[in-house]
From TrEMBL:
Classification via Gene3D superfamilies: 1.20.1260.10
Origin organism lineage: Bacteria, Pseudomonadati, Bacteroidota, Flavobacteriia, Flavobacteriales
Signal sequence extent: none
Pfam hit, one: DUF2383
Stored InterPro entries: CHP02284, DUF2383, Ferritin-like, Ferritin-like_SF, UCP029477
Organism annotation: Cryomorpha ignava
Positions of the DUF2383 domain: 12-118
Name of this protein: PA2169 family four-helix-bundle protein
Length: 152
């Protein structure tokens, strides 16, 4: 019984992160369309591809656990993308607004990964995958700060 409960909690954790990665991928694609700097557009495209890869890795972990992966993002992610539309429409510096939203989103993502990784039920290969993904999210946060130079 305890093993089954552990498995259910791990599946739930992975499903949440899977949805967050779907949301992030869509968000990066959305703001890529609004960005003015070609360098920023290129970077955003790479981040969207990276998040798609994260989702694929989590999908595989879920299938290994005999769980059916969710196939779409969250309502909260959709609402955040609407907010980005409004914010960039009202902003005189779209690229700066985009970078601010990237920072906010990546901080939230890093926190989500941290919370999931600190739980006792994230173990084995899932823990390895999530640890590697969190490290990449943290690298993205550092890179966003350097990108501000590209859009000035």
């Amino acid at each position: 019984m305890e093993n089954s409960n552990h498995n259910e909690k791990l599946v739930g954790s992975l499903q949440e992160l899977l949805q967050k990665n779907y949301d992030a991928e869509k968000g990066f694609k959305q703001v890529m369309q609004k960005a003015e700097s070609p360098k920023l557009k290129n970077w955003l495209q790479k981040k969207a591809v990276e998040r798609s890869g994260f989702a694929n890795e989590i999908d595989q972990e879920l299938r290994t656990l005999n769980a059916k992966p969710r196939d779409e993002g969250s309502f909260a992610g959709s609402a955040h993308r609407v907010w980005i539309d409004v914010k960039t429409a009202l902003s005189s510096d779209k690229d700066e607004s985009i970078l601010e939203e990237c920072i906010r989103g990546e901080k939230a993502s890093a926190d989500e990964y941290k919370d999931q990784l600190e739980s006792a039920y994230v173990t084995g290969s899932a823990k390895t995958v999530l640890t590697q993904q969190r490290a990449k999210v943290q690298q993205t946060l550092s890179a966003v700060k350097r990108l501000e130079d590209l859009v000035d």
